[in-house]
Design a protein that fits this description.
This protein is an all-alpha fold. The protein contains 5 helices and no strands. It is extended, with a radius of gyration of 21 Å.
Length: 107
């Protein structure tokens, strides 16, 4: 869907003559994406899919808080309420999973 817009703004291959741009693209692809994906897969293996699904729901909350702390973004009341609901729901799911594991271990 975004390909036509990207092609319309494509600067041409002459932009890749600059070593800084090549290094930036490599860093973004290998370090940021590759390292992040590796950590995610390692965590998925260790923690399980349910726990990782709950933690994925915390990503927008973390992003909003870091935007507020580091960038001075303003959080609206509805955003704060949504973050609170997300955090509370996450803790409920984590607690229920722990209770279920205790029941399973007791049997």
């Amino acid at each position: 869907i975004t390909l036509p817009m990207g092609l319309a703004q494509f600067p041409g291959f002459s932009a890749f003559d600059d070593p800084k741009i090549i290094m930036s693209v490599c860093f973004q692809g290998l370090i940021c994406s590759g390292f992040g994906f590796s950590i995610y897969m390692f965590s998925l293996k260790k923690l399980g899919s349910t726990t990782m699904a709950v933690y994925n729901n915390f990503l927008p909350v973390t992003t909003a808080i870091l935007g507020w702390l580091l960038l001075g973004e303003v959080l609206a009341g509805l955003q704060i309420a949504g973050m609170a609901i997300t955090i509370i729901a996450g803790f409920i799911v984590i607690k229920e999973k722990a209770n279920q594991q205790k029941k399973d271990n007791a049997q």
